[in-house]
Amino acid sequence: MDRSKVVRALGYRWEGVPLREYKAEGSHFHAISRQSLIGEREDEQGANFLTRYFELQPGGYSTLEHHQHPHTVVVLRGTGEVILGDRVEAIGLHDCIYIAPDTFHQFHAVGGEPLGFLCTVDRIRDRPALPSQEELKQLSCHDGIRRRMRI
Prior knowledge:
By secondary structure, the protein is mainly beta. The chain has helices at residues 133-140, 143-148; strands at 9-10, 13-14, 20-21, 30-38, 49-61, 71-77, 79-84, 87-91, 96-99, 105-110, 115-122. The mean pLDDT is 89.
């Protein structure tokens, strides 16, 4: 049985894909939503990956976190910044970001429009970890990161 399909885009939303909260709880993120496009539904159980769309409203940011699994991000909308380890990078339309295992990262929407990106990860993966107090102290040694990180 062929389970191939097209998930139709309607602007920056996808037909039949629920808009969800970024995470169930916490105050370490702001003004961000997600849609799981491929990999979570019953008819997609053969996929060993998830493709998700995240959208940060102007001024929004994701969690400052790290984990053991790598993932990729492709910017589809807006401009922003990403903390990648000990540096901050400007990101924009069609940029592709590789986040290596155990690298602290956090996305920030800058400018007057949302920052939207696709993110691909393994279906089975470890849980994200927040920085410890010692790790926060180390990250804060980098001036650019100290001024941008939100926790």
